[in-house]
Design a protein that fits this description.
By secondary structure, the protein is of the alpha+beta class. It has a single domain (about 5-100), classed as q64v53_bacfr protein fold. It is about 25% helix and about 25% strand. Strands 4-3-2-1-5 form a five-stranded antiparallel beta sheet. Strand 1 (about 25-30) and strand 2 form a beta hairpin. The longest helix has 9 residues, at about 105-110. The chain starts with 5 loop residues before the first helix and ends with a helix.
Length: about 110
């Protein structure tokens, strides 16, 4: 599990997907002290119809807490974590993987200038 500064997370999520072979970003994460949120996913993809980015969460395995947003601002400010948004709880977020890879191995790809 890895903790990441919010600025680094933001940089990952604002990455230009046209620079990737795979047209998505997928992050597996957990939220400390919330057994309900121990294997969650969030990410970014291109809409096939509009070509615009959209952001998403899949918080529980049964799909009952799946959310989609069409701007990064909406994505990080949506109060979907028991009345809190991602920014509110960021210090409790632990990253488990990025693009199905080890966080430390994948992070340089997104943070290089």
């Amino acid at each position: 599990m890895s903790k990441l500064a919010f600025w680094a997370f933001e940089r990952i999520m604002l990455f230009d997907l046209s620079k990737k072979k795979e047209p998505c970003i997928e992050i597996e994460f957990s939220i400390d002290n919330f057994s309900e949120y121990n294997s969650c996913y969030m990410g970014k993809m291109k809409c096939k119809h509009t070509g615009k980015d959209w952001y998403w969460y899949g918080l529980v395995a049964d799909g009952s807490q799946a959310y989609e947003f069409y701007s990064f601002e909406e994505f990080i400010t949506a109060k979907i974590f028991h009345g809190n948004n991602l920014q509110d709880i960021w210090n409790s977020v632990s990253l488990l993987s990025i693009d199905a890879c080890d966080v430390g191995e994948r992070l340089p790809f997104y943070l290089k200038t």
